[in-house]
Amino acid sequence: MPENNSMHQIETAAKEWLEKRGVKISDIADLVYVLQKKYHPNLTKEECEENVNRVMKKREVQNAVITGIQLDMLGEQRKLMEPLQTLIETDESLYGVDEILSFSIVNLYGSIGYTNYGYIDKIKPGVLARLNDKSTGECHTFLDDIVGAIAAAASSRLAHRAKDAE
């Protein structure tokens, strides 16, 4: 029983930390809608949000969220040692560890997650555009990829469930 309580605490913390960093579940659901509306003409935002919430229940996702946000915050506060400080602060394109962390989320629902992730990461719609805006002074090196990965996983979950329903 204590493990379930602990998992619930981590899920709650992950969602709260997302909110504190300016990302709502509905923002991620909007990304899912962008990814899936072409394939599901009757798709609703509520369905997208339900899939995001189901993905957020996964331990791998919760762990990635709290780890990535913590690293972003330390980078923002300039509390990391060099050269890591500069790599995270500038979101160095060849750093790649931010994407590696996000792959733990993307892969939850199979290889379609990688396609969804690559596409959403390239076009950066909605909340991803804001998270990638370097002029704000905020550091979202990990968070932008994590949010994109959650949207990709939720999209993949939605696609799998739709296929199963056929």
Topology:
Elements: H1 2-20, H2 25-36, H3 45-56, H4 59-76, H5 84-89, H6 97-106, H7 112-123, H8 127-131, H9 143-165
Give a structural overview.
The protein has 166 residues and is mainly alpha-helical. It has a single domain (2-165), classed as Orthogonal Bundle (YutG-like), CATH 1.10.3760.10. Helices cover 70% and strands 0% of the residues. It has helices spanning 2-20, 25-36, 45-56, 59-76, 84-89, 97-106, 112-123, 127-131, 143-165. The longest helix is centred in the last third of the chain and has 23 residues, at 143-165. This is Low temperature requirement C protein. It comes from Bacillus paralicheniformis. One of its GO terms (molecular function) is phosphatidylglycerophosphatase activity.
The gyration radius over C-alpha positions equals 16 Å
Can you give the helix content as a percent range?
A: over 70%
Summed up, the domain count is 1
Number of helices: 9
CATH class membership: Mainly Alpha
Number of strands: 0
In short:
Residues 26-160 form the YutG/PgpA domain. The chain is mostly helical and 166 residues long. The chain is 70% helix and 0% strand.
Entry keywords:
single chain, 166 residues, mainly alpha, YutG-like, PgpA-like_sf, YutG/PgpA
